[in-house]
TrEMBL record:
<feature type="domain" description="MIR">
    <location>
        <begin position="94"/>
        <end position="149"/>
    </location>
</feature>
<dbReference type="Pfam" id="PF02815">
    <property type="entry name" value="MIR"/>
</dbReference>
<dbReference type="InterPro" id="IPR036300">
    <property type="entry name" value="MIR_dom_sf"/>
</dbReference>
<keyword id="KW-0677">Repeat</keyword>
<feature type="signal peptide">
    <location>
        <begin position="1"/>
        <end position="27"/>
    </location>
</feature>
<dbReference type="InterPro" id="IPR016093">
    <property type="entry name" value="MIR_motif"/>
</dbReference>
<feature type="domain" description="MIR">
    <location>
        <begin position="150"/>
        <end position="204"/>
    </location>
</feature>
<feature type="domain" description="MIR">
    <location>
        <begin position="32"/>
        <end position="86"/>
    </location>
</feature>
<dbReference type="GO" id="GO:0005576">
    <property type="term" value="C:extracellular region"/>
</dbReference>
<dbReference type="GO" id="GO:0005783">
    <property type="term" value="C:endoplasmic reticulum"/>
</dbReference>
<dbReference type="GO" id="GO:0032991">
    <property type="term" value="C:protein-containing complex"/>
</dbReference>
<keyword id="KW-0732">Signal</keyword>
<protein>
    <submittedName>
        <fullName>SDF2L protein</fullName>
    </submittedName>
</protein>
Length: 219
């Protein structure tokens, strides 16, 4: 009888629906707040409270490419970025972005990709970050790995972006530009992971997470 009593709870557990046992399926399904491929969003640097930004202003030194900055305003249309994969087939619209996945961030208004390379940044002498390419097509220096702690990049998470080609982290340390982009902050790459390179998804149009890219809705 004692062994029968021990077996009864195990048999009951086996008969329960999986929906009543959420811990057994943890990590298989994306949470409703997962950031997805194709979503358009703004990214807030959590240390300096500025949003990742670009515009049709080129650097006067270094690469001479389109500049990338941080702005305090939350309503600036030049702060929207589209989430894309290393290729369009690797990150279909509506697919949740996994921690450790390489993505591209394409500036919506100019069609250029977030980019870095071995040029010094103009103010802090870290690594220059620019916007590069045409109509969303650039080169292999446009790839960034999303670093987060779970299975998927969640909207509530503070995440890091580590550059695939040069291994720097997308960062802000507070330096401000003068004319013609007075008050905007320098965005650059830093070799070390620290509190200057945490980012959080903010305003935007998010595609509802789905493991089946054919089934999605905009939120």
């Amino acid at each position: 009888m004692r062994s029968g009593r021990r077996l009864f709870p195990l048999l009951l557990l086996a008969l329960l629906p999986l929906a009543l046992l959420p811990g057994l399926c943890h990590g298989r399904e994306p949470a409703p707040g997962a950031v997805t491929c194709g979503s358009v969003l703004k990214l807030l640097n959590t240390r300096h409270s500025v949003r990742l930004h670009s515009h049709e202003v080129k650097y006067g030194s270094g690469s001479g490419q389109q500049s990338v900055t941080g702005v305090e305003a939350s309503d600036d249309a030049n702060s929207y970025w589209r989430i894309r994969g290393k290729s369009d087939s690797s990150c279909q619209r509506g697919t949740p972005v996994k921690c450790g996945q390489a993505i591209r961030l394409t500036h919506v208004n100019t069609g250029k990709n977030l980019h870095t390379h071995h040029f010094p940044s103009p103010l802090s002498n870290n690594q220059e970050v620019s916007a590069f390419g045409d109509d969303g097509e650039g080169d292999d220096l446009d790839f960034w790995i999303v670093q987060c702690s779970g299975t998927y990049w969640e909207r509530e998470d503070a995440v890091r972006f580590k550059h695939v080609g040069t291994e720097v982290f997308l960062s802000i340390t507070g330096e401000q530009y003068g004319h013609p982009i007075r008050g905007q902050r320098e965005v650059h790459g830093m070799p070390a992971a620290n509190h200057h390179n945490y980012w959080k998804a903010m305003e935007g149009v998010f595609i509802k997470p789905s493991l089946d890219p054919a089934k999605h809705d905009e939120l």
